[in-house]
Each structure stands twice: as C-alpha cells, then as structure tokens.
Amino acid sequence: MTQAEIKLCSLLLQEHFGEIVEKIGTYLIRTGPQPLRMIVNETGLVLDQVKKALCVLIQHNLVTYQLQKRGFVEYEAQCKRVLRILRYPRYIYTAKTLYSDTGELIVEELLLNGKMTMSAVVRKVADRLTETMEDGKTMDYADVSNTFVRLADTHFVQRCPLVPETPQSPDAPPPPAPTLVINEKDMYVVPRLNLVGKGKRRRSCDEEEEGEPKAKKQKQEGESSEPPPDDGIYWQVNIDRFHQHFRDQGIVSAVANRMDQTSSEIVRTMLRMSEVTTSSGASYTQPLSSNEIFRSLPAGYNIVKQVLDQYLTLLADDPLEFVGKSGDSGGGMYTVNLHKALASLATATLESIVEERFGSRCARIFRLLLRKKHLEQKQVEDFAMIPAKEAKEMLYKMLSENFVSLQDRRQR
C-alpha cells in the first residue's frame, strides 16, 4: 500500500473506532501478519486492550486470523476492507432506493455493528422506525422481517461463517483459534422465526427518572432468560453484491446513452435475471433465452416478441459487444459480456480524462494508441492527421503525465 492509503486507513479507523483500535489496525497494516505477543510488545498497549481492539476489528471484518503450523495465531489487517468504509453511505443509500427506509436501516445497523442476529436487527430497526412515526403508530416486527428476507434473497446480506459442531473429547484441549466454515447453500437461507411484536419508543428523561424502579422491573419481567431462536446465526452485509449492483447500473446507463431506453431496459432485465446465479467475478452472465427475457420484462414495457428479437440482434451486433449471442435454442440464447462492458466503460473514462486535461486533439491521439497498441511518432502524425510539431508536443505532454509510455523498438 502507498503511504497515502495507509494514512487514509489510519484516519478511518480513528474516526470510527477510536485511538486504540486505530493504533493496532495501523500497526498491522504497516507490518503485515503478526502474533498477539508481538502486537502487545510493539504497540505498548495493555494485553486486555489489544484483545478487545482485535475483537472489534474481527467483528467488522477488518482483521482476519490464521492458525499457524507452529501453534500460534497470526492476525492480518484487511486494507481494502478498511478503505471500503468510505462507501458505507453509498451502500446504505442503495438499500434505501431498493427497499425503502426499512432496508436502509437494516443495512445501516449491520454496517454499524459488523455482525448481528436477524432477531436483534429486526427489533432494533422496528424501534428506530417507530421513533419516526406519529404518536399511536408502531412498526411491526413482521414487516421488518419481510424486508430482511428480501435482502437475503437478493444476496445483499449473508450469513457469517460459524464454528462447526464437532464433538470433542473432554480431555482434548480446545484449539488456539476456531476454524469458521459456511456451506454455500446456507449463506442466504433465513431461519424461520416467529417474531411477534411492535417497535417501542424511547422513554423521555422525566419519565425515566420518575419511574426508574418500575421501568427496571418491567424490563426484567419482559425479558426472557432463554436465548433467541436464531442464537448463533449471525448476518453481515455482502459488500461484493453491492459492487455487483453498481457495476450493473453502470452497464445499463452506458447502453442507454449509446442506444435508447428500451435497449437499456432489456439489458437491465437480463442482469436482474442473472444477479443471483452469476458470481461477481464472472466474465459472462448465465445464457438467457429470448423467450425467458420476454417473460421477465417489466409490465410497463409493452413490446411484442418480434421487436424484442430485433433489439437483441442489434445489441449482439453492436461493436461494443455488451451483449453476445451464444446459441439459437429458445428463440436465441444471449449473455451480457461483463468484462467487455467494464473494459469499454474504463476506456471511455480514460478518454474523457485525457480530453478534459489536454484537449480534443490529445484525446484523438490517445484513442488511436488505445486502438493500435503501438505506433511510431510518424504513424501517429499520419493517422491522427496532426502536424508533426503539434503531435510531438502532445505526445510529450501525455508522456510527462504517464498517460502514454515510450518503448525502444530498435534491434540491439
């Protein structure tokens, strides 16, 4: 990592978790994996402080641990995960856009706490929503629970790995660190909970002071000593799924700008049909037939099957190749070329940056180099139709800013 990234990670940790957590997190970022004894010695903190700080970092997926062959545990900071704290507001806003205020608060609570049980999230969100309602109105646990299920079904939240239930002999010592596992089939399975109740409002300060003994008594009577039905099943935000959503939105916007709104809606439908079945790192979406796409189009788009096939043909024949045809069964099988689309978006961004910084003629040269890969100066002048002196100055400007590179092709 660069020094600027390390400094940014340090500031983020200090702002969100305080000085002690920041000190330990920054130390691990700078040094790499370290055992507990080394962390205590090098940071100068008390052992109990280090343990609590590591628990906080592990709770928020900012630090991972690994049991080494020699029997000790090493802790490693996840630098990229720390930097993603900057995107938390965007994750929360996306959840609000897709699943209203309830989805927004569910994602916010999970980001604030790292990992939580579903029952705890539902109760906390119901209380917060009740606070914003008019007097006499409350939020049902069932409504919040339904939104949580929808978030899990679309993979925006996922289960955390658990300690496997393996019987151990009473004489065998426990391992230095547990090994957490998760079955991929269970990552998005929501436990069946019969959560009955409504959100509660906070008591005012005067009511709390006057009725403190009674309030404590009611709290003790209302709370059960039994663990919740989903005890041990923790959930976290699936950040990769949010990034996949941002990627899909970028592809849809690019198609709308290049063609029209109907084409972008067709691509949006294809991406929505594949969002759960296609991994975030896949090159292509799952092949979809024309008939499947037609049945999945939004109700507001009243286009006939023949028009849809024409649009799909135009998308498949487009030079950008955002959509590709992979077969003829079911009226034609089509996929979205994710890597090709992202490469085109990145190229367009680079071209716009060069044009904004150096002008349209430099952008023409830069676009030419992107397409041809390698060109001599004379070839640049001829292909770009720019006078030799100007072309030389523009190439030097971009070379000095590291937008283009110079390679010696002479035979030695």
Automatic annotation (TrEMBL):
Cellular compartments per GO CC: RNA polymerase III complex
Stretches the record annotates as Disordered: 162-182, 199-233
Top-level taxon in the UniProt lineage: Eukaryota
Subcellular location: Nucleus
Keywords from the UniProt entry: DNA-directed RNA polymerase, Nucleus, Transcription
Protein role: DNA-dependent RNA polymerase catalyzes the transcription of DNA into RNA using the four ribonucleoside triphosphates as substrates. Specific core component of RNA polymerase III which synthesizes small RNAs, such as 5S rRNA and tRNAs.
Protein name (record): DNA-directed RNA polymerase III subunit RPC3
Organism expressing this protein natively: Calidris pygmaea (Spoon-billed sandpiper)
Highest classification ranks of the organism: Eukaryota, Metazoa, Chordata, Craniata, Vertebrata
